[in-house]
Amino acid sequence: MVTGRMSQAKKELGNQVLRELGTNASQVINELYDYVISRRALPFSAPEEERGERLRAAVAAVDAVPKVELDARFAAMDVRRARMERLSDDGLMGDGR
What is the pLDDT along the chain (97 residues), one digit of tens a residue? Predict the structure, then answer.
């Protein structure tokens, strides 16, 4: 037997939805326990602490990417002009640009 605490309103609304889905609280709880036992994980998103750790790791990974020196001649150009210059440098632009 498992006992869970929640507001009466949540329980009633949850039971109504479960009935509409053709199941009940006991079946859902049993399925949840089966899932947790077999996968050793929860079937829903990670706790807030774990998300924070993953976010910090992602930020550290991005911060670790080496910065690249930009060619000064491209600094004042828009993207289209810079692309044209690069193509020209690679010999891929004809004289008619």
Answer: 888 899 999 999 999 999 999 999 999 999 999 999 999 888 887 677 777 888 899 999 988 988 888 778 777 888 888 888 888 888 887 655 4
Tokens 């690249």, located at residue: 68
CB environment 12-31: b (16+ within 10 A), e (fewer): eeeeeeeeeeeeeeeeeeee
Secondary element (H or E) of residue 96: none
pTM over 0.90: no
Q: Distance (Å, rounded) from C-alpha 45 to C-alpha 37?
A: 17
Single-letter code of the amino acid located at 24 = N
DSSP letters spanning 27-55? HHHHHHHHHHHHHSS-SSPPPHHHHHHHH
